[in-house]
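Regression test case RT-17, inverse folding.

Input:
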């Protein structure tokens, strides 16, 4: 198992554990714990989306530079593929406001 897979697995376990605790807190009526876990969920939504975008754009960016070096006329259309993963951060940002 690579280091990247371990980080993703640990993040997933943390996200699932916080979700279970949030449901338990809502049932018990403890509002302060619920609000704290909601903030953690909002941070995870934005943070994990940004990490995923960074990884995707790093791989796409290196391929984009190679493709543009071979044929500069395709730079405009290939730029769309570089910007496409940015929607992950936008969805995380939207989730941040929905959870607030």
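Golden output:
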């Amino acid at each position: 198992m690579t280091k990247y897979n371990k980080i993703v697995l640990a993040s997933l376990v943390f996200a699932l554990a916080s979700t279970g605790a949030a449901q338990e807190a809502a049932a018990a009526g403890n509002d302060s714990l619920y609000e704290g876990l909601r903030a953690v969920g909002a941070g995870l939504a934005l943070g994990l989306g940004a990490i995923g975008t960074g990884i995707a754009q790093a791989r796409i960016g290196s391929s984009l530079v190679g493709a543009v070096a071979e044929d500069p006329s395709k730079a405009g259309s290939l730029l769309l593929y570089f910007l496409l993963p940015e929607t992950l951060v936008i969805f995380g940002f939207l989730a941040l406001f929905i959870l607030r």
